[in-house]
Amino acid sequence: MAVKVRMAFTLMVALAVPPHIAATAATASMEHARDARIFELLDDDEDGRVSMMEFKNNQMLVFYILDRNKDLALTADETFLPADVFASIAGADGKIDTLEFLDIVDVAFKQADTNHDGMLDRQEFAALLSRVRSQ
């Protein structure tokens, strides 16, 4: 389950963050600002919370951006995942299809929704990003 959560947020964060940025005290405020911007992008209706639908809609956008050859499947070279993480998600066919990706999104959202209200607030979202980064 943690691998699925890590994959979903790794993809989202990797698109929003240049890989050369290191997590230092100087970049902590940049990281906080970036996290806030990602949250704002996910919060389509601007109500200060992200619903499962908003989360899924935007995660599929990430999927389509990553799917460079537009075959509706992600290969290892189309993701930012370490080989072992990709292999554990992709299974025997060596690809992550849209249904597998949606399953990852469901798991990530449910784990992040710590108060079980069906919505992610800024604190839940920030906590999830923090957990993903520390893994």
Automatic annotation (TrEMBL):
SUPFAM superfamilies linked to this entry: EF-hand
Region forming the signal peptide: 1-22
EF-hand domain boundaries: 100-135
UniProt superkingdom: Bacteria
Listed SMART domains: EFh (SM00054)
UniProt keyword terms in alphabetical order: Signal
Gene3D superfamilies with a match to the protein in the record: EF-hand
GO molecular function: calcium ion binding
Stored InterPro entries: EF-hand-dom_pair, EF_Hand_1_Ca_BS, EF_hand_dom
Protein name, UniProt field: EF-hand domain-containing protein
Organism annotation: Azospirillum baldaniorum
